[in-house]
Amino acid sequence: MSIGVIAVIATFEVIHWQRRHSELAFQAELILRRSVAVATEVRSSLRTVPRLKTEPCSPEDLKALRLLVERSAFIVEIGRTKDNRILCDSDGIVPNGGILGPADRITSRGTKVWLRVPLRGDWRLVVSAAEANDVVIFTRPTAADDLFRSLGDAVAAVVPPRLATAYASSKHSDQLTGAAYTPVVDRWFEQNIHQCRDGFDLCVVVSEPAQMGFSRLSLGEKLALLCGGALLGRIAQGFIGTWLTSRRTLYRRLKRAIDRNQITVHYQPLVRLDDRVVVGFETLARWPLPNGDHVSPDVFIPLAERTGLLPALTEFVIDRALCDMSGLLSERPDLYVSINIAVQSLLSEELLTVLKLYCDAYGVERSRIVLEITERETGDVKLIGDAVGRLRAAGFRIFLDDFGAGYSSLAYLATLPIDTIKLDKLFSNSVGTSLVGSLVLDEILHMMSTLNLSVVFEGIETEEQATALGAIAPGAMGQGWLFGRPVPIGDLPTSPSV
Ligand SMILES: Nc1nc2c(ncn2[C@@H]2O[C@@H]3COP(=O)(O)O[C@H]4[C@@H](O)[C@H](n5cnc6c(=O)[nH]c(N)nc65)O[C@@H]4COP(=O)(O)O[C@H]3[C@H]2O)c(=O)[nH]1
Questions:
Q1: Residue 342 alpha carbon, nearest atom of ligand 1
Q2: What membrane topology does this protein have (predicted)?
């Protein structure tokens, strides 16, 4: 009888273990993806900088380095090195040459890596560094912090493959220190998971403190549990394990989230800079995690694109945005709602049908819908131009998103029938500074006015930025945390201006 009870307990332990394991494997995959994104950016800059035609550390060279820094998502500084000394960084010459010191590790491609170093000797700015070809790249060590926070009481380490197995089998936190992103936790760990990415010297190890009831049982109870529960537990593990494994992959989780309406949308206001009147709202998709955090759209939109889930996701967002906003749009005829459309969706035949369908269903005029396309995603400009032309002819408005963050801006500007350009936040960040964004802003604004295009500045965070941008670009619009963070429909401000 007692063996039966213990067997049931064992079964529940196995279920719990499998569930938690599945959750941690998912989190590990997200951390790995972010780490690969950082490594890709570093690798690409380590190749690009040596090919620059500029004299190292000359004013033109520093300008080119600054431009690369501004265009990066994760890189905070780039420097030129010689014999382990930093000669200059994009901000200027480093006085007396900064010494890099011994590297924490060297990758299989020969790149030296430092996990934590002070930027320009200032320990208040701790960064990670990678050096090869007489170039050093500094990145934020906190690039994946949001994902690490969502691990709860588990810990993660980003380590090279040769260490991953050792870490995965380690049992105590002492052995987990010294790797990137590992908090020091004085507890025992179990359920180690490790995932690596081919082509990168990167593995993620996730471990959880031991806390299950099993560890608290007496020796006699454990023996009884092992004998009586092992068989049933094993059988259950077989069934449950197969079931959970089939649901474990990111693809299935995203599909499930879409199917079960677990994706949500937030809205962020766009304002006229002159008088701060709200002119529209951008729709931003969110994938909430059970702990209250959410997976960034920068992670799950590319995943949806690769796995064929994008049409369902795009339709879901269109449906939700029009349903949420139809009331506000009919009350305020001056407002629009914008929706991000990935190039893959833009090129699909269904998009126009879906848009028309939901506009009719919710009684929303097509001219009140803005479709934001991102020029960062290069593609066949002719095909994209045709698709944009069709949507515009059907009455929808088109904004070109993140202008300046990509590489094909001019080709797009010359050919696409667009209404408005959204300037990447690098321009808002650079206003009033000597950064390259600020230097080229006048020329870009002149070009926009020649082409009769309206301008939205993205990423405005301070009053100084808003005032300065409003002064140099009268009539421009702005978007950013200063005017409002992205929030669910119920939390939108009711006032027509901010
Ligand atoms: N640092 C800073 N950031 C600010 C500020 N104001 C807004 N942001 C963030 O900047 C991003 C603006 O959206 P985006 O450029 O279209 O960039 C979007 C968009 O390209 C894509 N995305 C979001 N939702 C969808 C969707 O439903 N479909 C598609 N295809 N893409 C989407 O994911 C990107 C990232 O979205 P989010 O993480 O929500 O990030 C949003 C927003 O939260 C600010 O003042 N400072």
A1: 30
A2: Multi-pass membrane protein
Helix (H) or strand (E) holding 21: helix 2-51
Residue 128 has pLDDT above 60, yes or no: yes
Distance 168 CA to ligand 1 centre (A): 35
Label residue 440 by pLDDT band (50, 70, 90). confident
User: Does pTM top 0.90 for this prediction?
Assistant: no
* Planar angle of CA 59, 90, 112, nearest 5 degrees: 130
pLDDT of 247 reads: 44
Mutate to test the pocket of ligand 1, among 284, 398, 422, 425 (most ligand atoms within 8 A of CB): 284
Judge residue 233's burial from the number of C-beta atoms within 10 Å of its C-beta, 0-12 exposed, 13-18 middle, 19 or more buried: buried
Q: Residue 494: its pLDDT value, please? A: 80
* Domains assigned to the chain: 1-248 (no CATH), 253-491 (3.20.20.450)
Residues with C-beta less than 6 Å from any ligand 1 atom: 268, 284-285, 296-298, 301, 317, 340-342, 372, 374, 401-402, 425, 458-461, 479-481, 486
How far from 66 is each of 40, 123, 319, 426, CA to CA, in Å?
19, 22, 41, 11
The C-alpha angle with vertex 75 and arms to 448 and 306, in degrees rounded to 5, equals 75
In this structure, how many other beta carbons lie within 10 angstroms of the beta carbon of residue 303? Answer: 20
